[in-house]
């Protein structure tokens, strides 16, 4: 009989959630779709994230190969974030999450705070 840990480790859904399920990871990935953004731009887009949490989420996404961090040798320092090919491959999943969330909110009588829909 498999232990609970074995099932989680070998489960594609659990694997996906572990990669994109951090506090702001899905939002970071969504905002980086088709764009390159600097830290300050991401902070403006995800205002509820503390600097410490945003930095932690960016590091984890980079460690997992979903985003690329480009550091330019200039003063003041310039750092840009973009999606890797692996990160870009998550677009259909994120887009489906957006669509599902929009429909659910509509069924609850709520309106999304903004239109963040990306075109394919």
UniProtKB/TrEMBL annotation:
Keywords: DNA-binding, Transcription, Transcription regulation. Residues 11-109 form the HTH hxlR-type domain. Pfam families: HxlR. SUPFAM superfamilies: Winged helix' DNA-binding domain. The keyword Transcription applies. InterPro entries: HTH_HxlR, WH-like_DNA-bd_sf, WH_DNA-bd_sf. Signal peptide: none annotated. The keyword Transmembrane does not apply. One of its GO terms (molecular function) is DNA binding. This is Transcriptional regulator, HxlR family. It comes from Peptoniphilus asaccharolyticus DSM 20463.
């Amino acid at each position: 009989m498999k232990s609970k840990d074995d099932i989680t480790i070998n489960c594609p859904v659990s694997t996906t959630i572990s990669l994109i399920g951090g506090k702001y990871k899905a939002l970071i990935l969504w905002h980086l779709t088709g764009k390159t953004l600097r830290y300050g731009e991401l902070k403006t887009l995800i205002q509820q994230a503390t600097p410490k949490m945003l930095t932690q989420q960016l590091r984890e996404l980079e460690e997992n190969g979903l985003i690329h961090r480009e550091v330019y040798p200039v003063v003041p320092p310039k750092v840009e974030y973009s999606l890797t090919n692996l990160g870009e491959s998550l677009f259909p999943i994120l887009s489906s999450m957006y669509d599902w969330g929009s429909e659910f909110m509509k069924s609850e009588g709520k309106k999304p705070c903004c239109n963040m829909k990306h075109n394919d």
